[in-house]
């Protein structure tokens, strides 16, 4: 597995909408996972990589294989959050990320997690080596 710890973090601002909260105006826990997914997608987009293009060009999809998430502090309706993405490493068919969701007003870490995403063949849904072109695009983006 190659190590990418020196790579910079990508940040995505996210506003908490009413639909993201429970009856107490607190972000519903599953929505942190959505925020992190959105940030990983936008990280790829910032590198010039579009998921639909990868599917057509390489016949591949990404699937979350493992996720560890800690919910540390609540975020509330109308909070502005920053969701970060850092590539921690890559393997033959996987990318490992560390992510945080922080509240802008006080920099409190509301949620953090580690996610292992695997590359799968779109037809068989079995693991598939990460395309060299994709790895090159990721490396060129940093």
In short:
The protein is α+β, with helices and mostly antiparallel strands. It has 3 helices and 6 strands. It has helices at residues 29-46, 51-58, 132-140, and strands at residues 2-3, 10-15, 60-71, 80-90, 94-103, 109-121.
General description of the model:
With 142 residues, the chain is of the alpha+beta class. The chain is built from three helices and six strands; from the N terminus they run ββααββββα. It has helices at 29-46, 51-58, 132-140, and strands at residues 2-3, 10-15, 60-71, 80-90, 94-103, 109-121. Strands 1, 2, 3, 4, 5 and 6 form a six-stranded antiparallel beta sheet that branches.
N/C terminus separation = 18 Å
Tell me the CATH architecture.
Roll
Shape: elongated
Q: Which class do the helix and strand fractions yield?
A: alpha+beta
Number of strands: 6
Name its key features:
elongated; six-stranded antiparallel β-sheet; alpha+beta; 3 helices; single chain; 142 residues; Thiol Ester Dehydrase, Chain A
Summarize the topology.
Elements: E1 2-3, E2 10-15, H1 29-46, H2 51-58, E3 60-71, E4 80-90, E5 94-103, E6 109-121, H3 132-140
Antiparallel strand pairs: 1-4, 2-4, 3-6, 4-5, 5-6
């Amino acid at each position: 597995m190659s190590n990418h710890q020196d790579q910079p973090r990508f940040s995505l601002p996210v506003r908490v909408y009413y639909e993201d909260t429970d009856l107490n105006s607190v972000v519903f826990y599953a929505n942190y996972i959505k925020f992190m997914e959105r940030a990983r997608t936008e990280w790829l987009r910032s590198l010039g990589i579009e998921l639909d293009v990868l599917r057509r060009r390489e016949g591949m999809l990404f699937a979350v294989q493992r996720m560890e998430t800690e919910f540390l502090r609540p975020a509330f309706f109308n909070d502005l959050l920053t969701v970060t993405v850092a590539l921690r490493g890559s393997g033959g068919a996987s990318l490992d990320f560390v992510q945080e969701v922080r509240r802008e007003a006080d920099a409190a870490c509301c949620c953090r997690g580690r996610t292992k995403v695997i590359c799968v063949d779109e037809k068989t849904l079995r693991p598939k080596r990460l395309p060299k072109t994709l790895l090159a695009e990721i490396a060129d983006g940093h």
